[in-house]
Structures are given as C-alpha cells and as structure tokens.
C-alpha cells in the first residue's frame, strides 16, 4: 500500500533544483575561517547580516522588550496564552508605519488591511489559495526567485507562466512580453488570474521603473486580473533612485479607492530589510475586504508568535531607531555591493547594474564552453566543487539566457567576500590560461596539418611528372 500522498512525493516542491542543491553541498562542507578554511563559501543565500549590531544595541538599551516586560512587570503569561489570528494591534500599527517610512511616507497603510503570516513564503502561498483555483495561472517575469515554484504551485495547484525578459534591455518588463505570456497561457488553456512581481527584483537586484509599474497596472486593468507586488526588499534600495512601490503608482493614477486597487496586493516581510528570517514575520496588504477576511482565516496555519510581535512592535515603534537603521542599512549595503562588483571586475567578470537587494546578477557567459544551459550547469558545478563557492545558476531562476548567476554579498564578512573573489579570480585566470594553451595547441596542430598536406601535394605533383618535364 502506498504510504505517502502523491502531493508530497512529487517533484513539484522543487527541492531538486540546482538552487537548493547548492545549499546541500554547502551544508556538507561549510566554510569557516578557523575550522574549515577550504570549505564552500555560501553565496547562494540572500540574508542581510550587515546591521545586527544596531539591533543588538537597541535590545541592550530596551531590556523590557526582550525580557517580555511592560513597565518593568512581566507579561510573559499574557503573551504565552492563546492569541487570535488577527495579530496584536500595536504590532500591525508599528509594521504599517514602518512600511510607510520605507516609502518616504508618500503612501499610507491601514493596519486593518494587514494580514500577518509566517514569512513571505506563507504570505504568497496564502494569496494563491485566495485568488486562484487549482490549474489557474499567474504570470511571472523571468528571471524569478526559484522558491516561487514551491511557494506558489506546490500545495495550491496553481501554475506559473513566464513573462520572458531579456538582457538586451536589462531584463525589464515590456508590453509585448506581457501579451506573449498572456497568449501563451491561453494556448495552454490556463485561466490567468494575475501577475506576480518582486520589487526590488530577486534575483536581478534592480527596482521596477515607474514605466514598468504603470504598464503592469494598465495591463491588469485591461485584463481584469490581480497584481501581487512582493516588496520584501523595499528597504534595501541603496542607489540614488527612490524606491517606487505599486502603491505609489495607484496614488499617482488616483486609483487608491477604485475597483482596480482591490486587485492590487502587497507582500512584505522583515526577513530582508531587518535581516530577521528566523523570526518568520510576513504580511499581506490588500484593499479588498474579502481577501483580507479570507487570508486572515488561512493565516491560522502560519501565525507569528505573540512574543515575536511584542518585541518587534516595540522596536518598530522607536522612530529614532528605525530612521537610523534604514539609513545605515542602505549605506552598508551599497559599500558591500561595491566590494563585490570590484572583486568581480578584477576577475574579468561583470554584472547587471543594480540598485537594491542583497545580491548581484552576474554575467559569466564568456566562461561557458558553449552557449547552452548544459554548459551553464557544468560551470556551476566547477564553481561549487572546485572553486568552493555556492552561487545560483540562472537556469534555476528560469532565465532564458545561459550564463547568468545570482551572487549574494550581505551574508558574510568583508574578509570572506574578499576570499571568495580571490578564489573566483584564480579560477578565471586558470581557465583563461587553459583556453590559451588549448587555442595555441590547436593552432599548432592546424599549422602542422597544413604543412603536411602541402608537402604531400608537392611530393605527389613531383612524382606524377613525366620524365621530360624533370
């Protein structure tokens, strides 16, 4: 008798993706400066470890929050007892204000329209359950976060249809690409329920432009479908450009209280901006009361603990701290991203110009033996097993062009990043040398064959002459 269900034994989870396989190899042989200096350096994990000192300093100055006390008195029992799934009002208020602060207070978020979830993974899946029937489709621009194959599809039965984007314009979304994806879904007899984008983009490390956001809002308006904007990296924008949320566009278009606004939903999390993935804090923001009601019911399967909410409501309510944190976080991310880009350039490798996120989209097409995804995976294996760097191949992100890789920079020390770039540089130089030797050898063989043929032709032509011609 079959012991496990088809759902849990299928490959739909995506665990066999090279994205996750790289993590597995890292866990078998993790780099440690003292204990394992020749181990694999983890550059496939988008964690923000650059500002823990700021949070730890705040915790030391605010022992009541960390000690689950209020005005010096323990509230442990109060927090330990049952809480309903609507969440603590003071935390939802603090979270809404933090989201507003990230967006320059240009837009507002109503705490009553926030649904808490155990991270953005849970938030995105909950939205899929609310908006799509099994077999319905969402359109996603490529390249996209590999985990979406699990988060959006595995348990919900929803389908993903790619919006193919190209390096020719920096992987920006175009109207023709949107139309082609929509038409492809129709050819596959899939009902399109919406579009999901990450802004800033994972894995590109770029923010969507106003043109792209306007295009998306116009498109979902014309097709009467939903738009989910996953904005979990919104507080990581470190460039000169200001982060523009889909909420900004709704306001600019005077669509804040329209029917269209009810089909626009924002996903947020504290995993990237605050670097707290272990706290499992995510949120859905929707202007549709029915979506909020349905998502709230579903959130009982992935709640945020009351203790976590209490601690973070105190931290996020400290406006002096959040202002300082956001500014310093951006400064440190910019410095660390520049360190990665400089290291790549020293190795003869370039990347897409980025302005946000915890990673760069790195162009290694010139290191491929052939312009194929098979060659990309071979290069990835060499980088993981020989160079000892875990990076994510573009094929795991459904990129349509072989040779692109996502490389993270905020989950390690400066010294470790320098070492990673040193390893990569040595590999590229050895590869270039091998290619030069191979090319030189090939040219010598070619020249030798040419001389051999010439001599043979000369001998044959001389031998074939009649005697009186000699």
Topology at a glance:
Elements: H1 6-9, H2 18-28, E1 41-42, H3 52-61, H4 63-66, E2 69-70, E3 73-74, H5 76-80, H6 89-102, E4 114-117, H7 119-131, E5 137-141, H8 148-154, E6 159-163, H9 175-187, E7 192-198, H10 210-223, E8 226-230, H11 246-252, E9 264-269, E10 282-286, H12 289-298, H13 306-317, H14 319-346, E11 350-351, E12 359-363, H15 373-385, E13 389-390, E14 392-393, E15 404-408, H16 414-463
Parallel strand pairs: 1-13, 5-6, 5-7, 7-8, 8-9
Antiparallel strand pairs: 2-3, 4-10, 9-10, 11-12, 12-15, 14-15
Helix pairs in contact: 6-13, 7-8, 7-12, 14-16
Distance between the termini: 92 Å
As a percent range, the share of helical residues equals 40-55%
Can you list the strand order of the major beta sheet? 4-10-9-8-7-5-6
Let me know the average pLDDT: 91
Stretches where pLDDT falls below 50 for ≥5 residues? 456-470
> What shape does the CA trace take?
globular
Strands, total number: 15
**Structural class of the secondary structure composition?**
alpha/beta
User: Given the structure, what is the number of helices?
Assistant: 16
**Rg value:** 27 Å
Largest sheet: 7 strands, mixed
Strand content: 5-15%
Task: Provide a compact summary of the structure.
The protein has 16 helices and 15 strands. With 470 residues, the protein is α/β, with parallel strands linked by helices.
């Amino acid at each position: 008798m079959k012991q496990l269900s088809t759902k849990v034994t299928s490959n739909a989870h995506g665990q066999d993706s090279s994205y996750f396989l790289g993590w597995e190899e890292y866990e078998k042989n993790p780099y440690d400066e003292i204990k394992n200096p020749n181990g694999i350096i983890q550059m496939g994990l988008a964690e923000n470890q650059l500002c823990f000192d700021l949070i730890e300093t705040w915790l030391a100055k605010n022992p009541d929050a960390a000690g689950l006390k209020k005005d010096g008195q323990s509230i442990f029992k109060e927090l330990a007892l049952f809480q309903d799934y609507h969440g603590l009002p003071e935390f939802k208020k603090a979270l809404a204000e933090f989201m507003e602060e990230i967006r320059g207070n240009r837009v507002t978020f109503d705490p009553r329209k926030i649904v808490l979830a155990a991270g953005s993974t849970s938030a995105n899946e909950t939205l899929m359950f609310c908006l799509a029937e099994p077999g319905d489709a969402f359109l996603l621009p490529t390249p996209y976060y590999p985990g979406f194959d699990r988060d959006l599809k595995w348990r919900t039965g929803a389908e993903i249809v790619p919006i193919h984007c190209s390096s020719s314009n920096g992987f920006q979304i175009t109207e023709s690409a949107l139309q082609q994806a929509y038409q492809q879904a129709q050819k596959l007899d899939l009902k399109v329920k919406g579009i999901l984008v990450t802004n800033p983009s994972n894995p590109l490390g770029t923010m969507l432009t106003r043109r792209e956001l306007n295009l998306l809002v116009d498109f979902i308006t014309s097709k009467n479908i939903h738009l989910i904007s996953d904005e979990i990296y919104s507080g990581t924008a470190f460039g000169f450009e200001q982060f523009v949320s889909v909420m900004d566009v709704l306001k600019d278009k005077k669509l804040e209280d329209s029917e269209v606004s009810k089909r626009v939903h924002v996903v947020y999390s504290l995993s990237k901006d605050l670097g707290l993935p272990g706290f499992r804090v995510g949120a859905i923001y929707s202007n549709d009361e029915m979506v909020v009601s349905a998502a709230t019911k579903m959130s009982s399967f992935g709640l945020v603990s009351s203790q976590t909410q209490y601690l973070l409501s105190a931290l996020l309510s400290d406006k002096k701290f959040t202002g300082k944190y956001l500014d310093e976080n951006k400064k440190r991310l910019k410095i660390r991203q520049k360190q990665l880009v400089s290291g790549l350039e020293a190795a003869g490798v370039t990347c897409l110009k980025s302005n946000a996120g915890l990673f760069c989209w790195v162009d290694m097409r010139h290191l491929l033996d052939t312009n194929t995804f098979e060659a990309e995976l071979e290069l990835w294996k060499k980088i993981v097993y020989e160079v000892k760097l875990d990076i994510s191949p573009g094929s795991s992100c459904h990129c349509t062009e072989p040779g692109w890789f996502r490389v993270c920079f905020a989950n390690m020390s400066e010294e470790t990043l320098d070492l990673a770039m040193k390893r990569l540089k040595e590999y590229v130089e050895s590869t270039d040398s091998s290619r030069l030797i191979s090319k030189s050898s090939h040219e010598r063989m070619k020249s030798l064959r040419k001389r051999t043929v010439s001599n043979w032709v000369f001998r044959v032509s001389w031998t074939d002459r009649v005697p009186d011609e000699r």
